[in-house]
Amino acid sequence: MIGILLQNIEDFVLLNPEERYQKHLEANTKVLQKVPSKYIASLLGITPVSLSRIKKRILNGN
User: Fold this and answer.
1) What are the Cα distances from residue 13, in Å, to 9, 29, 34, 60?
2) How many helices (H) and strands (E) does the chain have?
3) Cα(59)–Cα(56) distance, rounded to whole angstroms?
4) Alpha-carbon torsion 60, 19, 27, 54, what sign?
5) Domain of life here (predicted)?
6) Residue 57 and residue 40: Cα distance in Å, rounded?
7) How far is CA 56 from CA 9, 17, 49, in A?
8) Predicted confidence (pLDDT) per residue in 21-51, tens digit
9) Hey, is 35 helix, strand or coil?
10) What is residue 34's predicted lDDT score, i.e. its pLDDT?
11) Cβ–Cβ under 8 Å, residues 20 and 14
12) Measured distance CA(8)–CA(51) in Å, rounded
C-alpha cells in the first residue's frame, strides 16, 4: 500500500492533469465510467470544468 501511495504522490508531482487522467483511464476504465466526474476531478486535483475540457480533448484526439 505504501508503494501505491508513493506512486500516486510521484504522479501528482511529475505529471500534468491530462497525463494523470490518461494514466487512471488506462488502469481503471470501467471504474471511471461509473464514478461522477466531480469525484474524479477531486482525485486528480483539478476542477470538474477542467476535467470536462480534458475529456473533450481526448475524445477529439488532440
Assistant:
1) 6, 22, 26, 26
2) 5, 0
3) 5
4) negative
5) Bacteria
6) 16
7) 26, 14, 11
8) 999 889 888 988 899 999 999 988 899 999 9
9) coil
10) 92
11) no
12) 18
